[in-house]
Amino acid sequence: MKALVTAPGNTAVVADVPVPEPAANEIRIKVHSLALNPVDALYVAHPVAPPGRVVGSDISGTVEKVGENVTQWSVGDRVAGFLQGATSGNPRPGAFAEFATLQADLAIRIPASVSFEEAATLPLCSLTAAQALFIRLGLHAPFSHAIDAEKDMGESPAILIYSAATSVGLFAVELARTARTATGKPYRIFATASTKHHQRLLNSGVEGVFDYRSPAWPEDVYKASGGIAGALDCISEDDSAAKISQTFRESGGTIAVIRQSAWHREGFKDKVTAVYSAVWSGLGHEILYNGGTIPASPSWRAFTVEFFKFLSAGSPTDPSRFPISPLPTRLMPGGLSNIVTDAFPLLGSGKVMDRSYQGSEPWLKPISAEKLVYHVQ
What we know:
InterPro entries: ADH-like_N, ER, GroES-like_sf, NAD(P)-bd_dom_sf, Trans-enoyl_RdTase-like. This is Zinc-binding oxidoreductase. It comes from Lyophyllum shimeji. The protein is an alpha/beta fold. Helix content is 22%, strand content 24%. It is built from nine helices and 17 strands. Strands 3, 4, 5, 6, 7, 16 and 17 form a seven-stranded mixed sheet that branches. A six-stranded parallel sheet has the order 10-9-8-11-12-13, with helices on both faces. A two-stranded antiparallel sheet has the order 1-2. It is globular.
């Protein structure tokens, strides 16, 4: 089969690799669509293992073969999921190929009215948002899970989604909107974004949106909210977390950051802490990552299983849709062979705030509140 694999020179090429066989409790899917994430480009430009690894995370397609003991899936079922392609020091499967294998309980059933392109946008970024909100910040989740992470934030606490028009941010807004405190009260959601996205976020249930380019935004958020109780930093670069800390109430709280070392701690408000975790922990394997080892976590994997069941069940008001909205998509021309030349320059291989590439073709305009999606087959 054709797959996108890492190659000498810190790049990736389309190559022929063996079709993977599903092990017990796995399914093989015929990949229809894939969605790009910044880590896909980052770890090709800065490889953590020798060449030859299959690249890529988010995919959707149809079940083509089921392994032993698999009873919840049948050939032809539409599913989505994510893998850890080329982002770890230890060998982990990648997704950007004609076929891929997923563990059966870590696949998402695609509701009837959701396209393959839409479904491919969900797995990695929606799980990142769910882990941040319901494990690290301790919000009361709209689904059952075994991790005792809930924090007493008071009645109708205010939370902040910094850079809410990013993929993780948009999902975080959706999830926070569906959540309720233990006493049934909604969370008050505040956000930062560029001004062109303000109305969209207000329409989605955000109480107040602020322009992150304004030097006064932390003070404005504090005044509007009365003090933030928990925040998700969807950029986590330079002084982003320090600025977010200034929006917190005097009793402090937690900022969930999505990057480990691209931000600094200088200027933090007293009693505000930042907590990092890697979304890959949700796959349940030991991971060699960012120069260290993340132990396998059965509890984080169990959380993923329950969250993916929540997505698979569909919306309570319309089971043909997901309970949260997929991301807007930009369908890119070509297939696997166009990812390195077109998508990777748009994603960049360093800081999100440093992206400057823009090509001459319409599909090469800068990314804004959308996912780059390719068809594979």
